[in-house]
Amino acid sequence: MGAGEIPLEAQALTGAGQERALVDSCRAGDPVAFARLVRLHEGMVFNLSARLLGDAEEARDVAQEVFLQVYRQLGRFEGRSSLKTWIYRIAVNQCHNRRRFWHRRRRDREEGLEAVPAEAAGAGGGSSPYEEARLGERARRVQAALLQLSFEHRLVLVLREVEGLTCEEVAAALGVPEGTVKSRLSRAREAMRLRLLGLVEEGGAS
Questions:
Q1: What is the mean pLDDT of residues 70-87?
Q2: Which domains does the chain have, with CATH numbers?
Q3: Which band of pLDDT confidence, cut at 50, 70 and 90, is reported for residue 55?
Q4: Other Cβ atoms within 10 Å of 110 Cβ, number
Q5: Which of 100, 129, 160, 161 has its CA 20 to 30 A from that of 121?
Q6: In this predicted structure, which of 5-9, 103-107, 141-145 has the lowest mean pLDDT?
Q7: In this predicted structure, what is the pLDDT of residue 6?
Q8: How far apart are the C-alpha atoms of 205 and 29, rounded to whole Å?
Q9: d(Cα 72, Cα 70) in Å, to the nearest integer?
Q10: Higher confidence at residue 89 or residue 103?
């Protein structure tokens, strides 16, 4: 090894290599590695679930179930998509399952943003009380409009516009063609625009 050359074992892994190393450690039964995986992704899982379900307590329950499934299914993760996208797919499936449970029990639990804490709503962050109140009201209106959309439209809108996934990543997370994602996204954006317009008009009339 020449002067100044860094040993291979000391070189930091980045990107896909780092992700693969973490997955391999989790598969080997390393509890510290799995705890790190959870820390890396628990925020996104909770936020996605809260946005889709409109209920913070349900979102926390779903997040716990998601990581239980991640733990059980990690041996089947093939790396054809990113770990993040794979976890999104599990989270989406769990949200679908929870909504089907609600439907069977004839429960309408989509309560709106008042049930979702600030970390999912995007409010707060050191602003003045007036600014926080204004942003909080705006966030509640947006979430109320979001919960009026069909679940499929809500899903693509949250994944693309809130979570920042590309259309390709959304397609991978949902297991549908990219063209389907783009078509649903176009319709979802228009439906959201109309609902937000209606909320603004209601607010002005009150």
A1: 89
A2: 16-116 (1.10.1740.10), 123-201 (1.10.10.10)
A3: confident
A4: 20
A5: 100
A6: 5-9
A7: 35
A8: 59
A9: 5
A10: 89
Tokens 């769990």 locate to 94
Q: Which of 161, 168, 128 is nearest to 143 (CA)?
A: 161
Query: Tokens in use for 98?
Result: 């929870």
CA nearest neighbour of 62 among 27, 16, 129, 109: 109
Asked if the model's pLDDT at residue 137 lies above 70, the reply is yes
At position 154, the amino acid (one-letter code) is: R
Structure token digits, residue 15: 């990107």
Beta-carbon contacts of residue 95 (< 8 Å; ≥ 6 apart): 48, 49, 52, 53, 62
Q: What is the dihedral of CA 193, 133, 112, 51, to 10 degrees?
A: 70
Half-sphere exposure of residue 140, counting CA atoms within 13 Å on the CB side? 12
Q: Record the tokens describing residue 62, joined without a space.
A: 């779903």
Is the CB of residue 153 less than 8 Å from the CB of residue 183? Answer: no
Alpha carbon distance 186, 184 (integer Å): 5
Q: If pLDDT is split at 50, 70 and 90, which confidence band does 196 have?
A: confident
pLDDT tens readout for residues 11-30: 444 567 788 899 999 999 99
